[in-house]
Design goal:
It is built from 16 helices and no strands. The protein is mainly alpha-helical.
Length: 352
């Protein structure tokens, strides 16, 4: 029998349990050390600030909020730049900017509204109406797109649609001046003159001497054939808005109807100062000089201006040919009359 201590069965179990616990403790210690060396937070809800010893909320909340604020600021700055370019008539740059901005933020109603206005000023009416219709669907509480659709339908001579949009706009806000003016214009174009007169009377009473209301009054009087009253209302509108090129063109046409060619020419000249590169206005001036004032030299000069802008303008080329022919006819007529006059004098002095 050996001498010394021999552990019992219960002692062997206790020692084995202790060793297993010791091994697990070492393993857990190594895992924690490895995790800390790799900056991995085991089960922690947020990263710890080394200075403050508390969760660093900027990592989880501030960054997204800062990103969102930055996007909103960029969108606002882009919208301001778009409006500025449109007002400066830098239409190419404005159109490119709009396409870029709307791709980034297609749900921005104010941005789409600015784009619709831009394309309308550019004369791209189909694209403008498309943008306005998107706004009418996506932002049904916005009244401005509905009014614009009524106005543009009038320009396209789609009078029933113009009247429908105008009534919808007035139903949305019965106090909106632009909606009521659109309704008056559509009623006049539809020959509903009595309802138009009633609505116009209310507007004049509420708003006083307003250029847009005066312009609607001009259209109502013109529709009734009351040219003197129409001219008075239109002159009042132009006096309050002297740079409205379309109203100046309308006044020129009205003066021409009344035989006041000098005033008609002056109105055209004022309209051309607002938009000196408008082929339409230049063509109107050339026709005025050629057909009404019979100043073929002045007409020729304007036709040449048109050809500088559009070298392939058929109407301008034809106008130049006409003016040359008419000048030659006048010269031939003058020569014939001069010969006849000289011959009559000769016969008077030297009778046969």
């Amino acid at each position: 029998m050996r001498s010394g201590f021999t552990p019992s069965c219960s002692a062997n179990i206790a020692v084995g349990d202790w060793r297993r616990v010791q091994m697990k403790s070492k393993l857990l210690t190594w895992v924690v050390l490895i995790a800390l060396s790799n900056n991995v937070a085991l089960g922690a809800p947020a990263a710890r600030s080394p200075n403050l010893g508390r969760p660093d909320s900027s990592a989880s909340t501030s960054a997204p909020n800062s990103h969102s604020a930055s996007d909103g600021q960029k969108s606002s700055e882009g919208l301001k730049q778009l409006i500025s370019l449109t007002e400066a008539q830098s239409y190419g740059k404005a159109a490119n900017l709009f396409e870029k901005l709307i791709e980034q933020d297609p749900q921005n109603a104010q941005l789409r509204l600015a784009g619709a206005k831009l394309f309308r000023q550019m004369g791209m009416f189909a694209r403008s109406m498309s943008e306005y219709k998107k706004l009418a669907m996506d932002s049904p509480k916005m009244i401005e797109p509905i009014v614009a659709l009524s106005q543009m339908s009038m320009e396209y001579l789609n009078i029933p649609e113009a009247l429908s949009y105008a009534r919808r706009a007035v139903a949305m806000d019965p106090s909106d001046k632009n909606a009521r003016i659109a309704l008056c214009s559509a009623l006049i174009a539809s020959d509903y003159l009595k309802p138009a007169e009633d609505e116009l009377g209310k507007l004049q009473k509420e708003r006083g001497n307003d250029p847009q209301i005066n312009y609607v009054a001009y259209k109502l009087n013109l529709k009734r054939g009351q040219l003197a009253n129409a001219r008075q209302q239109l002159e009042s509108a132009v006096k309050l808005a002297p740079n409205n090129a379309q109203w100046l063109l309308d006044l020129s046409e009205l003066c021409k109807q009344q035989g006041d060619y000098d005033e008609a020419t002056q109105c055209l000249q004022r309209a051309m100062k607002v938009d000196p590169y408008s082929v339409d206005k230049l063509n109107r001036m050339a026709i005025m000089q050629e057909y009404f004032l019979h100043d073929y030299d002045a007409a020729t000069a304007v036709y040449k201006q048109i050809l500088e802008i559009d070298p392939e303008s058929v109407s301008a080329l034809a106008g130049l040919d006409r003016c040359r022919a008419k000048k030659n006819d006048i010269a031939a007529l003058f020569k014939t009359e001069l010969r006849s006059w000289i011959h009559s004098i000769y016969r008077a002095i030297f009778p046969t």
